[in-house]
Amino acid sequence: MESEQLFHRGYYRNSYNSITSASSDEELLDGAGVIMDFQTSEDDNLLDGDASIGTHYTMTNGGSINSSTHLLDLLDEPIPGVGTYDDFHTIDWVREKCKDRERHRRINSKKKESAWEMTKSLYDAWSGWLVVTLTGLASGALAGLIDIAADWMTDLKEGICLSALWFNHEQCCWGSNETTFEERDKCPQWKTWAELIIGQAEGPGSYIMNYIMYIFWALSFAFLAVSLVKVFAPYACGSGIPEIKTILSGFIIRGYLGKWTLMIKTITLVLAVASGLSLGKEGPLVHVACCCGNIFSYLFPKYSTNEAKKREVLSAASAAGVSVAFGAPIGGVLFSLEEVSYYFPLKTLWRSFFAALVAAFVLRSINPFGNSRLVLFYVEYHTPWYLFELFPFILLGVFGGLWGAFFIRANIAWCRRRKSTKFGKYPVLEVIIVAAITAVIAFPNPYTRLNTSELIKELFTDCGPLESSSLCDYRNDMNASKIVDIPDRPAGTGVYSAIWQLCLALIFKIIMTVFTFGIKVPSGLFIPSMAIGAIAGRIVGIAVEQLAYYHHDWFIFKEWCEVGADCITPGLYAMVGAAACLGGVTRMTVSLVVIVFELTGGLEYIVPLMAAVMTSKWVGDAFGREGIYEAHIRLNGYPFLDAKEEFTHTTLAADVMRPRRSDPPLAVLTQDNMTVEDIENLINETSYNGFPVIMSKESQRLVGFALRRDLTIAIESARKKQEGIVGSSRVCFAQHTPSLPAESPRPLKLRSILDMSPFTVTDHTPMEIVVDIFRKLGLRQCLVTHNGIVLGIITKKNILEHLEQLKQHVEPLAPPWHYNKKRYPPSYGPDGKPRPRVNNVQLNPIAEEREETEEEVHLLNSTTL
Q: Where are the bilayer-spanning segments (predicted)?
């Protein structure tokens, strides 16, 4: 009978096989990257490690993954707060998935009892689709609002529409009958600030007044943006993607996806883009969409009470954010899969696609740009590319990789300097200085004065008969044969002038983007990187075009480029360069190619894009494998274990576990020999977030693991709700309470909060396997044992510190096999048996404990990093 009860409670020894009976890949935790904080005090200590354990099945004691499913069943009623998480803590992926399976079983078992239970079951089944639908609707609506407001405020720096104040420059002149083809942007309804203030439309006075007003509005918008961020929502600054990656990996940052952050980020994103700073709104739109997903998830208990399920919604929300940022629903799904998500089951893939679809549909319905497109710089090309052009495309990929490597190193160095100097204490001043320098330098150059999205649009656009840009100022050959496409022509003075201006704009964008990304306003990196690549690509495209025109008899042009034919498309080079530079910075590959492909609407240019993006990634990886988001995660100390990194060293679990030789002994609990006062003293005297529970001080065999938070909550709850619980009450973690004297106070049973199957490894387990286990199972920590006796603990923080040390040191050669048989962890005596413990106090070592040779001591010290 007892074994049957244990079987139903998930403690049966053979129930490990339950993992193989999971109904879907959603139930197998194969990609959860659980993370740890290097900076916060809460997670800094779990037996010299990090956040405490939840529940993990073990390969060594036969414990079941379902043991946490009935974590609270042994209590008469659940203890409020047990199983929840504090701020800056890591979630327990395994426990959260077990809780969700138990909830699902409970709903299925009751749905046939009544119509109400059946309705609740249907509501639970459809809640996932409802929450992603609401997220997509909100994301699309907010993106349209941001686009319209940013365009209007950007044009406000130059003038105002008197006939309708809410119109931007382009909309103001739509209904005018007095515009000309050459000066289509000039109409009586639109007044510059010089015309309104001094009554002059031309001349030096007009130029100076427009210059002053441009700087005034830029500084005003930047100051208002940084002030709102500083006062109301400090989390609204930056791109948000590094933090989103950290949160999706299992870390909790309270308020980062809250309503105040959403509101302030939406407002300040418009202000930051309108200020003319070298930043974009595409990255922050992912943060905005994730805020929407987080807020709507609280409407559904299925997601509000389960942190792992909530992260499935956030993955779908990030796909919706990229969908409205670039008008690329499929690219958004791939971006979520490739760049930000760690746990991405098939069901989340479908819901991400649906959320991206809904968001794109809403944005298309709003039509913020008036061109029936989702983005301003949508283009279509009709000229095919030729094999020779792969060479300049690859050169653009090399430039993108070099730009990415330079930007990552320069920006991280500047951000690190900002953190370590007094300059970082004055974020408002920094934003004002950067905005002032940007405005002063940007105004004289028409290409830097433009909104960055409009600049990309002009660079992407191919020269046609209706184009009046100086980039299309070619000398027309009247004797050329009339064909449908405009043939390659010699460049005019306007083109050469534009090239010089673009070269200056390229230098300006490179320098200012380094100093802008990371300031305390919403700042995306997608658009500035694409602008830099588009400028370089357009310059290369014009150069190749002119080379083909003047040297069409060269063998590389003779076979496919005839005189008077349209051979080269400079706009295509701009698009390829934009993709290469963005790939060099972010190290995205598949999702980036699909996003740019959706921007162009044609499959014909997939090969040039793939060649440039892969070249960019290879060149960038030659200087460092980290993308800009991973670099900022490491800079900010976010607890993130990157699944892309490879562990190739030969250290063992005993080399990394805590306690070390010079550390205090391992703090443990006994299953029935400690009092409430003993546990409270242990909690008060230590800062660990969890404690192994052993059978007794004599046997020291592992029983389970208890969380510090759960212990505190359970003892406080017992003092309030149970009579007779005092400091001298015996605490029992065992199944049966031991016999106590009659005069003893009432014992406190805490077996319900005990993790009966913590994940364990032996002391000789290679760290390569341990790191892989942490990555794929989302563990928060695992215990290190020897023949069932607990020796120490390895937390995610220990692994991160170990990886960082290995990067800074050259690993010594692996010690010989017989060396590992001689050495013992510090918890052992000279005979290889564990030393006796009294609770958490380790007895003094025996005098003849260590008898290693000098060679062994040297090997031990060199391999224990």
A: 126-150, 214-236, 256-277, 284-301, 313-337, 386-408, 428-447, 498-519, 531-552, 572-597
H or E stretch including 334?
helix 329-335
CA 208 remoteness from chain centre: 44
Residue indicated by tokens 């043939």: 487
Q: Tokens 């995660």: give the residue.
A: 633
Pick 261 or 625 by higher pLDDT.
261
Half-sphere exposure of 10 (CA within 13 A, CB side): 26
Q: Cα 345–285–321 angle (5° rounding)?
A: 30
Which of 296, 322, 315, 377 minimizes the C-alpha distance to 140?
322
181-187-190 Cα angle (round to 5): 145
Strand-pairing partners, residue 833, are: none
Rounded CA-CA distance 318/243 in Å is: 12
Q: Which helix (DSSP H) or strand (DSSP E) does residue 404 occupy?
A: helix 390-420
Bridge partners of residue 218, in order along the sequence: none
Tokens 């405005």 locate to: 439
Contact 320, 361 (CB under 8 A): no
Joined tokens for residue 67: 């043991």
Mean pLDDT (the chain, rounded):
78
Buried b (16+ CB within 10 A) or exposed e, 12-47: beebbebeeeeeeebbbbebbbbbbbbebebbbbbb
How far apart, in Å, are the Cα atoms of 530 and each of 46, 284, 448, 505, 670? 44, 16, 14, 13, 60
Q: How much is the pTM?
A: 0.79
153 burial type by CB count under 10 A (0-12 exposed, 13-18 middle, 19+ buried) = middle
d(CA 654, CA 793): 9
278, 452 Cβ separation under 8 angstroms: yes
Residue for token pair 């690219």: 331
Enumerate residues 6+ apart whose C-beta is below 8 A from 227.
428
Alpha-carbon separation of residue 790 from 148, 700, 794 (angstroms): 62, 7, 12
DSSP state at residue 383 = S
Nearest to 661 by CA among 820, 848, 852, 845: 845
- d(Cα 631, Cα 652) in Å, to the nearest integer? 27
Phi/psi region, residue 345 (left: phi>0; alpha: psi -120 to 50; beta: rest), is: beta
Residue 111 belongs to what H/E stretch? none
Distance (Å) of CA 387 to CA 439, 561, 596: 42, 12, 20
- Closest by CA position to 592, among listed 293, 276, 332, 850: 332
pLDDT digits (tens, 9 = 90+) for 530-557: 999 999 999 999 998 888 888 777 777 7
What is the sign of the dihedral through the CA atoms of 188, 189, 194 and 196?
positive
1 burial type by CB count under 10 A (0-12 exposed, 13-18 middle, 19+ buried) = exposed
| H/E element, 116 | helix 115-156
Helix H, strand E, coil C: the string for 224-284 is HHHHHHHHHCHHHCECCHHHHHHHHCCECCCCCCCHHHHHHHHHHHHHHHHCCCCCECHHH
b/e burial code for range 801-834 (CB count within 10 A of at least 16 → b): bbbeebeeeeeeeebeeeeeeebbbbbbeeeeeb
The string of pLDDT tens digits covering residues 430-464 is 999 999 999 999 999 999 998 888 899 889 888 76
Give the pair of three-digit tokens for residue 106. 């409970």
Residue 326 and residue 479: Cα distance in Å, rounded?
42
Other CB atoms within a 10 A radius of the CB of residue 500 amount to 10
Burial 512-548 (b: 16+ CB within 10 A, else e): bbbbbbbbbbbbbbbbbbbbbbbbbbbbbbbbbbbeb
| SS3 call for 692 | strand
Residue 855: Cβ within 10 Å count: 11
